[in-house]
Amino acid sequence: MCIPDFFQKSTFVPDSTGGREKISAKKLFLLVIWYLSNQESFREVADRFNVTFSSAHRYLKRILKFLLSIKSSVIKWSNDEEREAIIEGFRRKKGIDHVIGVIDGSDIEIPKPSENQTAYINRKGYHSLLLQGIVDRKKHLEIFWFDA
């Protein structure tokens, strides 16, 4: 079962939609991923996915809270044996020794927060959250974001 399916069955999704058509968990996750990885306004993202601004905002918050609630079961560090297998995989594939992952990051611009504003200013001078990803030898992507 994939993460959107777990989300759909979680308490983060209300039993009733008030008579409105239910939005699929897959569509909601795609909306959140699109929002976090592009520079479109939230209204543009809602339009792109054909949902109301308020629904998009409500589900963004629910999905992020859901992801935080499952982080301990999906985020883990490798043990010594796993690390050696990863190092060997990079050595065989790319001829590079002592590598356990390839990392990159991106600043996601956000509106100025109401609290702790200076903690969100990045090196380029605007407010953002840092989204980072690590890829292993099998091209498995781990994504992290950091809040001040």
Describe the structure.
The structure is a single chain. The chain has a 3-stranded antiparallel sheet with strand order 1-2-3, with no helix packed on it. The chain has 148 residues and is α+β, with helices and mostly antiparallel strands. The two termini are 32 Å apart. It is globular and about 55 Å long. It has helices at 3-8, 25-37, 42-48, 53-74, 80-94, and strands spanning 102-109, 128-135, 141-146. Helix content is 43%, strand content 15%. It folds into 2 domains: 3-74; 80-146, no CATH class. This is Transposase Helix-turn-helix domain-containing protein. It comes from Ignelater luminosus.
Task: Give a brief outline of the structure.
The protein has 148 residues and is of the alpha+beta class. Helix content is 43%, strand content 15%. Strand 2 and strand 3 (141-146) form a beta hairpin.
Number of DSSP-assigned strands: 3
Shape call:
globular
**Which strand order does the major sheet show?**
1-2-3
Mean of residue pLDDT values: 84
Alpha carbon gyration radius: 18 Å
Please, how many helices? 5
Structural class: alpha+beta
Low-pLDDT residue intervals, each spanning 5 or more residues: none
Helical content, roughly? 40-55%
> Could you state the order of secondary-structure elements as H and E?
HHHHHEEE
Specify the biggest β-sheet.
Answer: 3 strands, antiparallel
Distance from first to last alpha carbon: 32 Å
Structural domain tally: 2
Strand content: 5-15%
